[in-house]
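Researcher: I'm comparing several assemblies side by side, and this is the next one on my list. It has 525 residues spread over two chains. Same procedure as the others: predict the full complex and return the structure.
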Amino acid sequence: MIERLMNLDRRIIFLFVFAGVAVPLLMDFSFPIKPTDNVRAVYQQIEHVAAQKDGKVLISFSYGGGAAAELQPMARALLRHLFAREVEIVAISLWPDAVGLAQAALKGMADEAGRKYGTDYALMGFKPGNSVVILGMGQDFRGTFPTDNFGASTDTLAVTANVQSLADFDFVIDLAAGESIDHFWIPYGQERFKFPLAGGCTAVMAPDLFPFIQSGQLIGMIGGLAGAAEYETLIGHADKATSGMRPQSVTHIIIIAFIVLANVTFFLSRRRSANTTSHQDLA
Amino acid sequence: MSRDRYLFGGLILAFVALNGVLLGSGRLPVNWTGFGIIVAAGLTLLLYSFLYKDNPLFKFAEHIYVGTAAAYVFGQYWFGGLFGMVIEPVFMKEDIQAYDKWLLLIPTLLGALMLTRFSRRWAWVSRISFAFYVGVGAGLTIPRYISSFVLQQIEPTLRPLSLTMEGFDVLVILVGVVSVLVYFFFSVEHTGVVGGVSKVGIYFLMVAFGASFGYTIMARLSLLIGRVSFLLEEWLRIPLTL
């Protein structure tokens, strides 16, 4: 038995993980989701911006299809909140493959809230250069993005007509799958032009960003699908992230069970081999 | 024919039959949207077939992904960069002043010089561009990074200690930073007090790696959840509970 467990085919583990994901998606049960302080800080900053007249938020989409499962629900939850509170949104992309995802999220949430392109929100599209784009926006936003994603002049869009630089935004959020928050937005944007910055990131990146919250360089952070689920809880609209927490939790239990099983099996096999060796020595 | 060939052949036939049923029953629309969903579902399954073992169907899907992604990224760079920032303003827009057009040609020329790397005879010309790039890059990066990653990070590490939970947090951070720095200080032999402090640093590092690995598992599972949700909800049209 121990030998069989020690040589367990990894595909059996894959099957367990697949079942742990698929079955909870089809079943109706839930785990409590308690928003953390870091996610709550983002929510409260948007509420603060909404309380101002003509509050404006810049969202940078810096992820591709590979991270869409984590960051697209986050983007939808944030946009749903912003549109509901009638905050003006300007979206840009520092990743070439984020434009389509940004467009889908913006259009979906704007249609749901009855908001109009040009007056309530705008998508400026992709510009290569990362740090150079951020520095450019800080000095001359309309020079960096003279037209939107569809070729319309930035001057003719009501939502961008009065934007001169990054300082004109009340809040900046970077949704990132790479290093854009800590390597570009913090040093070249927040540090230099002094605006409130928050990050929405994949779970892999979250541990690297905690020091920037502690130092106040980020006012808040939404980490991974769990962070997106927390944000959905705060706005009171359960969506993909909340439903994703059931399989997430169940699969974590399965993985923990396999880790415990592997360790118990390992120690049992080591004890057995030690006993066998001592018996051979006696013989 | 090997067992795997029968297995994969059977799965392809099952996939075709299932899509026929989905289209025939009207669960999937007979239009480009429906076709897109079928292609996405098929490629997802082909890529996950690697979990069974490496196979030609996985390779096929992998190559399609690489090719499509490269073309998409090229398109975005072309329209967002070369076309949108150089060709259109210089040659196609009449409302831009001649001075601004000439100004645009300077970075364009510097960029073009980088392409001389492909010629052995003219490769030295590219050094002009690289010198400019490295100089500007270093000038921009060094002060920004020192400010963001050193000065701004030292300040919260050295906050005054107090008998509150925040004070305890500061103490943990202080002990963690000092002990890990000692662990990576190799000029002194790690024995005695230094050895003890460096061992504390190892524990801090292990906790950090464990937290990082836990987050990584969560991230990878989120991707799987995204794909399985897509297969169940959008392809097979099984309603998921919220």
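Model: For your comparison table: Residues 6 and 262 of chain A are 7 Å apart (CA to CA).
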